[in-house]
């Protein structure tokens, strides 16, 4: 009796899977993953435009290309995936009869009905499958392998590489897009940013040339001005960095998403918070300024050792040591922040993002 119940259940399961095939005759199409990718690409273009990283002209060009690819993927979806209804019905009937019989036969020979079920917790902890986005990127990579002259393809996939820590691949893709499609401020700045990520936050001479090329085409390029200022700060050119970032903030819109970051770096570079304390330090001789700044940084460190829940404090401490070119202390501050913020996922994410930006901790 139990085997009959199993056979009926198996038949019902097979029928529930095959019935939509018999009714509609539609097969899944891999173009759905491409659609999701290009929709995300369009959203990414809009975000970069809002952040001032992409000029309106470049936005229209990139968005038009992504939209074209999206329309082509949508047109391909299900276009040639229709199956014959009659063949589907025959296949369903065959599967309903043969599959349960074969399954019961094999299970009677090889199965172990006495084994315990897989616990729910174990299933919940199982590793998820690869994302559809990664699958879409793999398709684009296969396309580029066959059509290496497709500059738009490199421009589409390069930001994905950069967001996922594949800086070397991003450099290669941005460089090929620049070569095949021609120079624009956004392409030069994106290539420079990829080089900075590859150097763990350090602005190399090669990256600086990319940013200078972006500024030659668009003197108002926010991302290029930011990294040129960062290069000056890293090279010890304090006054130059302050001048660049001060002008960048003066030109920024009130809702610029990077405004707060630049303001914090500028504040740290000046060596003191705004207000009366900052004015007093600014009036000191250079040597006294440095001593006062280091004293403030050490007091901040001592306070964080007593109360490590202050995310902003950790961010200021890591920036301060980085600006003071004290790499070991910056690394120690990063380790301390990660330990103190172990239960604050958002705080840890902000600390890790700053560490990557400044090249702290390798």
From TrEMBL:
Source superkingdom: Bacteria
Bilayer-spanning residue ranges: 88-107
GO BP: any one term: cytochrome complex assembly
GO CC annotation terms, alphabetical: cell envelope; plasma membrane
Subcellular localization(s) per the UniProt record: Cell envelope
Gene3D superfamilies (alphabetical): Tetratricopeptide repeat domain (1.25.40.10)
Pfam families: TPR_16
UniProt cross-references to InterPro entries, sorted A to Z: C-type_cytochrome_biogenesis, Cyt_c_biogenesis_CcmI, TPR-like_helical_dom_sf
UniProtKB keywords: Cytochrome c-type biogenesis, Membrane, Transmembrane, Transmembrane helix
UniProt keyword Transmembrane present: yes
PANTHER family, per database record: CYTOCHROME C-TYPE BIOGENESIS PROTEIN CCMH
Protein name as annotated: C-type cytochrome biogenesis protein CcmI
Biological classification of the source: Bacteria, Pseudomonadati, Pseudomonadota, Alphaproteobacteria, Hyphomicrobiales
Gene that this sequence comes from: ccmI
